[in-house]
Amino acid sequence: MREALQHPGLGNDDITYLHYGLFKEFDRLGETDEAWASLMAGAQARRSVTEHDAAKETAAYDGLIAATPKDFLDACGDVPRDATPIFVVGMPRTGTTLLERILGNHPDIKTCGELNDFRQQMQWVNNRRLTLTLDEDIGEYVARLDPTLLGNRYLAKTEWVADGSKFYVDKHPMNFQWCGAILKAIPHAKIIHLRRHPMDSCFSNLKELFAHKYYPYSYALDELATHYRNYARLMRHWHAIAPGRILDVRYEDLVSQPDVEARRVQNYLGLQEVEGVTDILANKTVTTTASTLQLRQPTHTRNVGGWRRYAAGMAPVQALLEDLIRD
């Protein structure tokens, strides 16, 4: 098999997919050394054709935080409150789809998948495209948004998918970048943030081969750790300027005590508690995310601490995130 990877007819994508496929097979067989070698080879192949600048990303997050100070939410958008969007945010592969399935079992909530509407309406309001990776002037970009126009356009553009429901879920993980803008434009919006252990979060991103141009930080260990730090400090910032407005749900709690967390979520949303919402197998809604296979089985804790099987390889990430890790 290793020799086959040297075939001159194989392109970069072929090699990348083969390495990630080998990782999954070796991992399933418990051959962790071979699995890690394949994962690193696949990640290196994808990184070689992926544009990402960790320093530029950090500067962009610096600017976003600086442009949204404590008084950022003093003046908010004037929008109708007929329907309440629920934004489920966090890093990808941290339980956002699982929570979406649980929410979708509540009779008062419609799930809508990963919508791009908030980002698209930010572009419309400012008459300028946003790159998939943040530009360094993103803080200025967010600061000049017209919150009333943005909020009204988002609600209008998602009305069809909400389909008359009083609550509807917009589950795009990367909306964590826009929590401040969301709360400013749609003051009654609800935001639920999925948190997962830093090392499991990073490992779950590292072992997933995302579509081209998406999550480009995830193919190099140092860039992965830098992104996690940026994500974590941005979420701390949103909590600081909007205390009590964002509900954190720990992945580990969601899979170990789903009924308890489901009650917490329903209370946060101000909804009547409904029993049985955690039966994700009863939810037949189609999902196209990377979590689709996991959702065909009951909620389990098998992935908690999964990074430890590859602790030696993940050591550089652990060292870079040591101060953020809470066992």
Which strand order spans the largest sheet, edge to edge or round the barrel?
A: 2-3-1-4-5
Q: Helicity range of the residues?
A: 40-55%
Average pLDDT level: 92
The count of strands amounts to 5
Which blocks of ≥5 consecutive residues have pLDDT under 50? Answer: 286-293
Largest sheet, in brief, is: 5 strands, parallel
Proportion in β-strands: 5-15%
- Coarse morphology: globular
**Treating each run of at least 4 consecutive H or I residues as one helix, how many helices?**
14
Task: Provide structural commentary.
The chain is α/β, with parallel strands linked by helices and 327 residues long. Helix content is 45%, strand content 7%. It contains 14 helices and five strands. It has a five-stranded parallel beta sheet with strand order 2-3-1-4-5. The protein is globular. About 2% of the residues have low confidence.
Labels describing this entry:
14 helices; alpha/beta; 327 residues
